[in-house]
TrEMBL record:
<dbReference type="InterPro" id="IPR052433">
    <property type="entry name" value="X-Pro_dipept-like"/>
</dbReference>
<keyword id="KW-0482">Metalloprotease</keyword>
<feature type="domain" description="Aminopeptidase P N-terminal">
    <location>
        <begin position="36"/>
        <end position="168"/>
    </location>
</feature>
<dbReference type="InterPro" id="IPR000994">
    <property type="entry name" value="Pept_M24"/>
</dbReference>
<keyword id="KW-0031">Aminopeptidase</keyword>
<comment type="similarity">
    <text>Belongs to the peptidase M24B family.</text>
</comment>
<dbReference type="InterPro" id="IPR036005">
    <property type="entry name" value="Creatinase/aminopeptidase-like"/>
</dbReference>
<keyword id="KW-0479">Metal-binding</keyword>
<keyword id="KW-0645">Protease</keyword>
<keyword id="KW-0464">Manganese</keyword>
<dbReference type="GO" id="GO:0004177">
    <property type="term" value="F:aminopeptidase activity"/>
</dbReference>
<dbReference type="InterPro" id="IPR029149">
    <property type="entry name" value="Creatin/AminoP/Spt16_N"/>
</dbReference>
<keyword id="KW-0378">Hydrolase</keyword>
<dbReference type="InterPro" id="IPR007865">
    <property type="entry name" value="Aminopep_P_N"/>
</dbReference>
<dbReference type="InterPro" id="IPR001131">
    <property type="entry name" value="Peptidase_M24B_aminopep-P_CS"/>
</dbReference>
<keyword id="KW-0732">Signal</keyword>
<dbReference type="Pfam" id="PF05195">
    <property type="entry name" value="AMP_N"/>
</dbReference>
C-alpha cells in the first residue's frame, strides 16, 4: 500500500482512514455479474416482516469499520444479516422494517427504509466509490432510500410501536466528529428517539429466550449455560428471572418460573429467531454461490495435495490454497486458514501457520474460500511424503469411518445432534480398539468438538439447531487430535486428523458438496502422486 504522508495531506489521510474500505465493491462495469439479485433480498425482507408481530418495527445496523493498526483499517465486511436483507456492502447504514405501513421522510405507505452513507467525491478518491442515495435506489431497489444524514429527521414515530426489535447494538464504535451520521451517531439517534433504556441488553433477552424455548426439554444444558453466562457477566447474577429458573428443581417449578419472564417493548429474540429460521434454509440462488465457494475450495485441496512436500512451510501451503481462491474470483477466505503440521494440527483453531518445514508429519488443512459473501469450510489431512505411515493411516481411517457414520444421519427430520452422536460413538469405539482409551467417556480428550454447524454467509452460520431440514447446509467434521505428551503409546503422538465436508440436506437425504476433495487414504495418496503445476516454479533465494 502506498502512503503519501506529506504534511499538507496528513490531516486528510487520517480523516479518510476513518472510512477505510468503506466502498471497495460498489457495483459498476467490469465487476462480476453473479451477485444475488435485488429480488432475493426483497424476498428476505418480506419474509422477515411476516414473522414480526403486529405493531412492530425491526432495526438493523451495518457493521462497524475496524482498525487493524494505526490508520490502517481491515477490509470492510458487512454484517451478514444486513447484507442478507439489503445487498448493501458499505458502512454507516441502517435498515428499518415496519409491520404496518408508515410515513417516513414525507413518503406514505413505507414498509422498508434504508439510510445509506452519502456520496463524497473527495473520500471516494481514497476509499472507493460509494452508491449513495441514488445508486442505492437504482441498484438495491428498496421502497424508501435516503442518505443517513436524514435518519434523525425522518419522522419515524417510535413511540407508536408496541414492539421494537433490534439485535445487539455494538458499544465499541468509534465516533468520527467530522461525520454527523456515522454508525456511532445512527445508533445514538435510534437509542434517543426510540427511548431505549441504558440498561437494555439484547444478550439478556436472547438468554431469556433460550430459557423459554429449551428450559424444560433440555433443562440440564440450559442450566449450565445460564450459570456460565451469569458468571461471565456479573450484571446477570442479580437477575431475578434467571435466579428463579435456576432455583427450580422440577419441570413444574421450571414452567412456573419461566412464565414469570419480564416483558418489554424492546426485544431481540424475535428478530434473532426469525433470522435463524430464514438463513438456515438456503434458496437456489444461495446454493449456487455456496456450491462455487465449495468447489473452489476443493480444487485448492487437490492442487495443494499435488504440490505438498516435506520441505514446504505451513505459510507456503496456506498461500497455495489462497492463490487458488483468488484465481477463481473468491474475494476472501471465509475464516483464517488453518494449516497445522504434526503437533500444530492438534490445535483446533491454529492460525499462526509459521512452521518453516512441515516435515513428514501429517498436515491438517482447514481452509475455505468466500465467494460473494458465502463461505466454504473444507478440511483435509495429508502426509507430505505422499504416503501415510501405519499409525497415521489407522487414525485417519477411524476419522473417515466416523464421518461416514455421521453423514448417514444427515437427513431431514433427524435431530441436529444425530451426526455428532454417530461420529462420537464411532470414534470412542475405535479408540478403545486401538488401546488409546479405556472408556468411552475418555473419547472427549481426543475429539473435543462437535461434528456440525450451519454454513452460509458465516462459517458458523445462523440456524435454530433443531431438526434438520431440506435446504440446510451443514459441516460434518469429526477429528482425532493426539498431541505430544498424551497418555497413550508415543507412536500416536503428534497425529492430528480432521476430515470436513459441506453437506446439503435434501428431501431424501444428503449431498456431499465437497466430495471432489479426496477423502479416502487411496484417493489422497493417488492425488499426491500426480504432478503439480508448481513443480517447476522456482523463486530466487533471498
Amino acid at each position: 500500500m502506498t502512503r503519501f504522508l506529506r504534511p499538507l495531506l496528513l490531516a486528510f489521510v487520517l480523516t479518510a482512514s476513518l472510512a477505510e474500505a468503506s466502498a471497495q465493491r460498489a457495483a459498476g462495469a467490469g465487476r462480476p455479474a453473479d451477485f444475488l439479485d435485488p429480488a432475493f433480498h426483497k424476498s428476505r425482507r418480506e419474509l422477515l416482516r411476516q414473522a414480526l408481530p403486529a405493531g412492530s418495527a425491526a432495526v438493523l445496523f451495518a457493521a462497524p469499520t475496524r482498525t487493524r493498526a494505526n490508520d490502517v483499517s481491515y477490509i470492510y465486511h458487512q454484517h451478514p444479516d444486513f447484507y442478507y436483507l439489503t445487498g448493501y456492502d458499505e458502512p454507516d447504514a441502517v435498515l428499518v422494517l415496519f409491520k404496518e405501513p408508515q410515513t417516513v421522510g414525507g413518503q406514505v405507505g413505507v414498509t422498508e427504509a434504508l439510510f445509506v452513507q452519502p456520496r463524497d467525491p473527495k473520500a471516494e478518491v481514497w476509499t472507493g466509490r460509494r452508491l449513495g442515495e441514488e445508486g442505492a435506489k437504482q441498484q438495491l431497489k428498496l421502497q424508501f432510500v435516503a442518505n443517513n444524514t436524514s435518519f434523525s429527521g425522518a419522522g419515524i414515530r417510535w413511540v407508536d410501536f408496541q414492539h421494537i426489535h433490534f439485535l445487539d447494538l455494538p458499544t465499541d464504535v468509534r465516533d468520527d466528529a467530522q461525520d454527523p451520521a456515522d454508525l456511532f451517531d445512527l445508533i445514538a439517534t435510534f437509542r434517543q428517539q426510540a427511548g431505549i433504556p441504558a440498561t437494555s441488553d439484547g444478550g439478556k433477552a436472547e438468554l431469556y429466550h433460550s430459557v423459554e424455548r429449551y428450559g424444560v426439554t433440555n433443562a440440564a444444558s440450559v442450566k449450565m449455560y445460564v450459570e456460565r453466562q451469569m458468571k461471565a457477566h456479573p450484571v446477570l447474577a442479580a437477575d431475578t428471572y434467571l435466579q428463579g429458573y435456576l432455583q427450580a428443581t422440577t419441570d413444574t417449578e421450571r414452567q412456573k418460573a419461566m412464565a414469570a419472564r419480564p416483558t418489554s417493548r424492546f426485544e431481540s429474540s424475535v428478530l434473532n429467531n426469525a433470522l435463524n429460521e430464514l438463513r438456515a434454509v438456503k434458496t437456489p440462488e444461495e446454493l449456487s454461490l455456496l456450491r462455487r465457494a465449495i468447489r473452489i475450495s476443493t480444487v485448492g485441496q487437490q492442487e495443494v495435495m499435488k504440490a505438498l512436500r516435506p520441505e514446504m512451510g505451513e505459510m507456503e501451503v496456506q498461500g497455495l490454497h489462497e492463490y487458488v481462491y483468488k484465481k477463481y474470483g473468491a474475494e476472501f477466505e471465509g475464516y483464517p486458514s488453518i494449516v497445522g503440521a504434526g503437533n500444530n494440527g492438534c490445535i483446533l483453531h491454529y492460525e499462526t501457520n509459521d512452521k518453516p518445514h512441515v516435515g513428514n508429519d501429517l498436515v491438517l488443512m482447514d481452509c475455505g474460500a468466500e465467494y460473494h459473501g458465502y463461505t466454504a469450510d473444507v478440511t483435509r489431512t495429508a502426509p507430505p511424503s505422499g504416503k501415510f505411515s501405519a499409525a497415521q493411516r489407522q487414525i485417519y481411517e477411524l476419522v473417515l469411518a466416523a464421518q461416514d457414520a455421521a453423514i448417514k444421519e444427515c437427513k431431514p427430520g433427524n435431530d441436529f445432534q444425530a451426526p455428532n452422536k454417530a461420529a462420537q460413538k464411532t470414534v470412542a469405539d475405535g479408540l478403545i480398539k486401538l488401546g488409546i482409551i479405556q472408556k468411552p467417556e475418555e473419547m472427549r480428550r481426543y475429539f473435543p468438538h462437535g461434528t456440525s454447524h450451519y454454513l452460509g454467509l458465516d462459517v458458523h452460520d445462523r440456524g435454530p439447531y433443531g431438526p434438520l431440514k431440506a435446504g440446510n447446509v451443514i459441516t460434518v467434521e469429526p477429528g482425532i487430535y493426539i498431541p505430544e505428551g498424551s497418555p497413550c503409546d508415543q507412536k500416536w503422538w503428534n497425529i492430528g486428523v480432521r476430515i470436513e465436508d459441506d453437506v446439503l440436506i435434501t428431501a431424501t437425504g444428503a449431498e456431499n458438496l465437497s466430495k471432489e476433495a479426496p477423502r479416502t487414504v487411496a484417493e489422497v495418496e493417488a492425488m499426491m502422486a500426480k504432478p503439480s503445476v508448481l513443480d517447476d516454479f522456482k523463486l530466487p533465494k533471498l
